[in-house]
Design a protein that fits this description.
The chain has 259 residues and is α+β, with helices and mostly antiparallel strands. It has helices at 86-112, 117-132, 135-144, 148-151, 157-169, 190-205, 228-248, and strands at 13-22, 25-30, 37-41, 62-71, 76-80, 175-184, 209-215, 218-225, 252-257.
Protein backbone atom coordinates (compact mmCIF):
# COMPACT_ATOMS: atom_id res chain seq x y z
CA UNK A 1 0.00 0.00 0.00
CA UNK A 2 1.34 3.41 -1.00
CA UNK A 3 2.17 5.52 2.05
CA UNK A 4 3.71 8.96 1.94
CA UNK A 5 4.76 8.98 5.60
CA UNK A 6 6.97 6.56 7.51
CA UNK A 7 4.89 6.57 10.71
CA UNK A 8 1.19 7.08 11.46
CA UNK A 9 0.04 10.18 13.30
CA UNK A 10 -1.42 10.29 16.79
CA UNK A 11 -5.19 9.95 16.62
CA UNK A 12 -5.07 8.15 13.25
CA UNK A 13 -6.91 4.86 12.74
CA UNK A 14 -4.75 2.03 11.41
CA UNK A 15 -5.18 -1.59 10.40
CA UNK A 16 -2.85 -3.93 12.26
CA UNK A 17 -2.17 -7.67 12.37
CA UNK A 18 -1.57 -9.13 15.82
CA UNK A 19 1.85 -10.76 15.77
CA UNK A 20 2.40 -11.84 19.37
CA UNK A 21 0.17 -11.88 22.44
CA UNK A 22 1.63 -11.53 25.93
CA UNK A 23 -0.15 -11.43 29.32
CA UNK A 24 0.44 -7.66 29.48
CA UNK A 25 -0.44 -6.73 25.89
CA UNK A 26 -0.08 -7.53 22.21
CA UNK A 27 2.44 -6.62 19.53
CA UNK A 28 0.98 -5.92 16.11
CA UNK A 29 2.40 -5.19 12.66
CA UNK A 30 1.04 -2.05 11.02
CA UNK A 31 -0.35 -3.24 7.68
CA UNK A 32 -0.18 0.23 6.09
CA UNK A 33 3.35 1.03 7.28
CA UNK A 34 5.97 -1.48 6.11
CA UNK A 35 8.29 -2.81 8.83
CA UNK A 36 6.51 -0.82 11.55
CA UNK A 37 5.04 -2.35 14.68
CA UNK A 38 2.76 -1.12 17.44
CA UNK A 39 1.91 -2.21 20.97
CA UNK A 40 -1.57 -2.66 22.43
CA UNK A 41 -1.47 -2.59 26.24
CA UNK A 42 -3.90 -4.96 27.94
CA UNK A 43 -5.79 -1.92 29.26
CA UNK A 44 -6.43 -0.83 25.65
CA UNK A 45 -7.57 -4.20 24.33
CA UNK A 46 -11.20 -3.86 25.42
CA UNK A 47 -13.46 -1.77 27.62
CA UNK A 48 -13.76 -2.93 31.23
CA UNK A 49 -11.52 -5.31 33.09
CA UNK A 50 -9.70 -7.84 30.93
CA UNK A 51 -8.89 -11.06 32.75
CA UNK A 52 -7.61 -13.11 29.82
CA UNK A 53 -6.19 -11.07 26.96
CA UNK A 54 -6.61 -13.97 24.53
CA UNK A 55 -10.36 -13.69 24.96
CA UNK A 56 -10.06 -10.46 22.97
CA UNK A 57 -7.05 -10.73 20.63
CA UNK A 58 -5.12 -13.59 19.09
CA UNK A 59 -2.13 -14.08 16.80
CA UNK A 60 -2.93 -13.44 13.15
CA UNK A 61 -6.04 -11.38 13.90
CA UNK A 62 -6.55 -8.11 12.01
CA UNK A 63 -7.67 -5.25 14.23
CA UNK A 64 -8.45 -1.59 13.70
CA UNK A 65 -6.62 0.55 16.27
CA UNK A 66 -6.36 4.18 17.22
CA UNK A 67 -2.81 5.49 17.45
CA UNK A 68 -2.42 6.96 20.93
CA UNK A 69 1.29 7.80 20.93
CA UNK A 70 4.15 7.88 18.43
CA UNK A 71 7.84 8.06 19.34
CA UNK A 72 9.60 8.37 15.99
CA UNK A 73 13.05 8.36 17.59
CA UNK A 74 12.47 5.01 19.28
CA UNK A 75 10.27 3.70 16.50
CA UNK A 76 7.55 3.06 19.07
CA UNK A 77 3.80 3.26 18.40
CA UNK A 78 1.12 2.79 21.08
CA UNK A 79 -2.25 1.50 19.92
CA UNK A 80 -5.76 1.14 21.32
CA UNK A 81 -8.50 -1.20 20.19
CA UNK A 82 -11.08 -0.13 22.74
CA UNK A 83 -11.06 3.50 21.55
CA UNK A 84 -12.41 2.45 18.12
CA UNK A 85 -16.18 2.06 17.79
CA UNK A 86 -17.88 -0.33 15.37
CA UNK A 87 -18.74 2.38 12.83
CA UNK A 88 -15.13 3.58 12.74
CA UNK A 89 -13.90 0.01 12.42
CA UNK A 90 -16.11 -0.72 9.40
CA UNK A 91 -15.21 2.53 7.67
CA UNK A 92 -11.49 2.02 8.22
CA UNK A 93 -11.57 -1.56 6.92
CA UNK A 94 -13.38 -0.40 3.79
CA UNK A 95 -10.94 2.47 3.26
CA UNK A 96 -8.02 0.06 3.73
CA UNK A 97 -9.46 -2.33 1.15
CA UNK A 98 -10.02 0.57 -1.24
CA UNK A 99 -6.40 1.68 -0.94
CA UNK A 100 -5.17 -1.86 -1.56
CA UNK A 101 -7.22 -1.88 -4.74
CA UNK A 102 -5.91 1.56 -5.66
CA UNK A 103 -2.35 0.21 -5.47
CA UNK A 104 -3.20 -2.50 -7.98
CA UNK A 105 -4.84 0.02 -10.29
CA UNK A 106 -1.80 2.27 -10.00
CA UNK A 107 0.33 -0.62 -11.24
CA UNK A 108 -1.87 -0.84 -14.34
CA UNK A 109 -1.62 2.92 -14.87
CA UNK A 110 2.17 2.81 -14.61
CA UNK A 111 2.41 -0.04 -17.12
CA UNK A 112 0.20 1.74 -19.65
CA UNK A 113 2.13 4.96 -19.23
CA UNK A 114 5.48 3.18 -19.66
CA UNK A 115 6.60 3.91 -16.09
CA UNK A 116 7.70 1.80 -13.16
CA UNK A 117 5.46 1.61 -10.10
CA UNK A 118 8.07 3.47 -8.01
CA UNK A 119 8.37 6.23 -10.61
CA UNK A 120 4.60 6.67 -10.54
CA UNK A 121 4.62 6.94 -6.74
CA UNK A 122 7.43 9.49 -6.80
CA UNK A 123 6.07 11.35 -9.81
CA UNK A 124 2.44 12.10 -9.05
CA UNK A 125 0.85 10.00 -6.28
CA UNK A 126 1.75 12.46 -3.53
CA UNK A 127 0.05 15.30 -5.36
CA UNK A 128 -3.05 13.18 -6.01
CA UNK A 129 -3.36 12.22 -2.35
CA UNK A 130 -3.02 15.86 -1.31
CA UNK A 131 -5.66 16.96 -3.83
CA UNK A 132 -8.21 14.16 -3.40
CA UNK A 133 -7.59 12.84 0.10
CA UNK A 134 -6.42 9.38 -0.97
CA UNK A 135 -5.26 7.51 -4.05
CA UNK A 136 -8.59 5.69 -4.27
CA UNK A 137 -10.35 9.04 -3.95
CA UNK A 138 -8.41 10.23 -6.99
CA UNK A 139 -9.54 7.18 -8.96
CA UNK A 140 -13.16 7.81 -7.92
CA UNK A 141 -12.97 11.44 -8.98
CA UNK A 142 -11.39 10.48 -12.30
CA UNK A 143 -14.18 7.94 -12.91
CA UNK A 144 -16.86 10.51 -12.10
CA UNK A 145 -15.34 13.33 -14.15
CA UNK A 146 -13.08 12.62 -17.12
CA UNK A 147 -11.66 16.14 -16.93
CA UNK A 148 -10.95 16.16 -13.19
CA UNK A 149 -7.18 15.63 -13.44
CA UNK A 150 -6.71 18.12 -16.26
CA UNK A 151 -8.84 20.56 -14.31
CA UNK A 152 -6.44 20.26 -11.38
CA UNK A 153 -3.54 21.08 -13.69
CA UNK A 154 -2.04 17.61 -14.12
CA UNK A 155 -0.15 16.95 -17.32
CA UNK A 156 1.78 14.03 -18.76
CA UNK A 157 1.22 10.68 -20.47
CA UNK A 158 0.06 9.10 -17.21
CA UNK A 159 -3.04 11.33 -17.02
CA UNK A 160 -4.85 9.65 -19.93
CA UNK A 161 -3.87 6.22 -18.58
CA UNK A 162 -5.14 7.12 -15.11
CA UNK A 163 -8.50 8.33 -16.45
CA UNK A 164 -8.83 5.22 -18.61
CA UNK A 165 -8.08 2.79 -15.77
CA UNK A 166 -10.46 4.65 -13.45
CA UNK A 167 -13.27 4.53 -16.00
CA UNK A 168 -12.73 0.80 -16.59
CA UNK A 169 -12.48 -0.29 -12.97
CA UNK A 170 -14.30 2.06 -10.59
CA UNK A 171 -18.02 1.64 -10.01
CA UNK A 172 -19.18 4.81 -8.33
CA UNK A 173 -21.35 4.37 -5.21
CA UNK A 174 -24.96 5.51 -5.52
CA UNK A 175 -27.92 5.94 -3.20
CA UNK A 176 -31.56 6.13 -4.25
CA UNK A 177 -34.36 8.01 -2.51
CA UNK A 178 -37.91 8.54 -3.74
CA UNK A 179 -41.42 9.65 -2.92
CA UNK A 180 -44.88 10.39 -4.27
CA UNK A 181 -45.78 13.79 -5.69
CA UNK A 182 -49.50 14.63 -5.88
CA UNK A 183 -50.38 17.38 -8.37
CA UNK A 184 -53.86 18.54 -9.34
CA UNK A 185 -55.41 21.55 -11.02
CA UNK A 186 -59.00 22.57 -11.89
CA UNK A 187 -57.73 25.21 -14.28
CA UNK A 188 -58.90 24.67 -17.90
CA UNK A 189 -55.21 24.45 -18.73
CA UNK A 190 -54.57 22.01 -15.89
CA UNK A 191 -52.82 19.44 -18.04
CA UNK A 192 -50.36 22.04 -19.32
CA UNK A 193 -49.83 23.39 -15.80
CA UNK A 194 -48.91 19.94 -14.45
CA UNK A 195 -46.78 19.09 -17.47
CA UNK A 196 -44.86 22.35 -17.03
CA UNK A 197 -44.43 21.69 -13.29
CA UNK A 198 -42.95 18.26 -13.97
CA UNK A 199 -40.59 19.74 -16.55
CA UNK A 200 -39.43 22.30 -14.00
CA UNK A 201 -38.89 19.49 -11.48
CA UNK A 202 -36.68 17.63 -13.94
CA UNK A 203 -34.67 20.77 -14.73
CA UNK A 204 -34.20 21.50 -11.02
CA UNK A 205 -33.01 17.92 -10.52
CA UNK A 206 -30.14 18.43 -12.95
CA UNK A 207 -30.39 15.03 -14.60
CA UNK A 208 -30.43 13.07 -11.34
CA UNK A 209 -34.24 12.90 -11.17
CA UNK A 210 -36.60 10.38 -12.75
CA UNK A 211 -40.33 11.11 -12.71
CA UNK A 212 -42.97 8.65 -13.80
CA UNK A 213 -46.76 8.65 -13.77
CA UNK A 214 -48.44 6.33 -11.24
CA UNK A 215 -52.16 7.14 -11.21
CA UNK A 216 -53.93 10.48 -11.22
CA UNK A 217 -52.92 12.71 -9.53
CA UNK A 218 -49.80 10.89 -8.35
CA UNK A 219 -46.26 10.82 -9.77
CA UNK A 220 -43.21 8.98 -8.47
CA UNK A 221 -40.06 11.06 -8.06
CA UNK A 222 -36.78 9.15 -7.76
CA UNK A 223 -33.30 10.57 -7.22
CA UNK A 224 -29.96 8.78 -7.59
CA UNK A 225 -26.79 10.41 -6.29
CA UNK A 226 -23.40 9.59 -4.83
CA UNK A 227 -24.47 10.20 -1.23
CA UNK A 228 -27.60 10.84 0.83
CA UNK A 229 -26.85 14.49 1.50
CA UNK A 230 -26.63 15.27 -2.21
CA UNK A 231 -29.68 13.12 -2.99
CA UNK A 232 -31.78 14.87 -0.36
CA UNK A 233 -30.81 18.30 -1.67
CA UNK A 234 -31.63 17.34 -5.27
CA UNK A 235 -34.97 15.80 -4.27
CA UNK A 236 -35.94 18.92 -2.33
CA UNK A 237 -35.08 21.26 -5.20
CA UNK A 238 -36.98 19.11 -7.68
CA UNK A 239 -40.10 18.66 -5.59
CA UNK A 240 -40.17 22.32 -4.51
CA UNK A 241 -40.02 23.41 -8.16
CA UNK A 242 -43.04 21.29 -9.08
CA UNK A 243 -45.09 22.25 -6.04
CA UNK A 244 -44.40 25.98 -6.46
CA UNK A 245 -45.38 25.87 -10.15
CA UNK A 246 -48.70 24.15 -9.47
CA UNK A 247 -49.65 26.28 -6.48
CA UNK A 248 -48.87 29.51 -8.34
CA UNK A 249 -51.35 28.36 -10.98
CA UNK A 250 -54.00 27.83 -8.29
CA UNK A 251 -53.65 24.07 -8.07
CA UNK A 252 -52.95 21.73 -5.19
CA UNK A 253 -49.66 19.93 -4.58
CA UNK A 254 -48.10 17.78 -1.89
CA UNK A 255 -45.23 15.33 -1.49
CA UNK A 256 -44.68 12.27 0.72
CA UNK A 257 -41.38 10.41 1.07
CA UNK A 258 -41.10 6.65 0.79
CA UNK A 259 -40.71 5.03 4.17
Amino acid sequence: MVRLTEFPEEGELVVATVREVKPFGAFASLDEFPDKEGFIHIAEVASGWVKYIRDHVREGQKVVCKVTKVDVGKGHVDLSVKQVNEHQRREKIQAWKNEQRADKLLGIVAARAGMSFDDAVKGFVGDLVSAFGSLYGAFEEAAANEKSLAGEGYRGPWVAAFQEVARENIVLPTVTIAGALDLSSVDPRGVEVIRGALEQAEVAGGGAVTIRYLAAPRYRVEVKAGDYKTAEAVLKDSVDAAIDAVRKAGGQASFSRDA
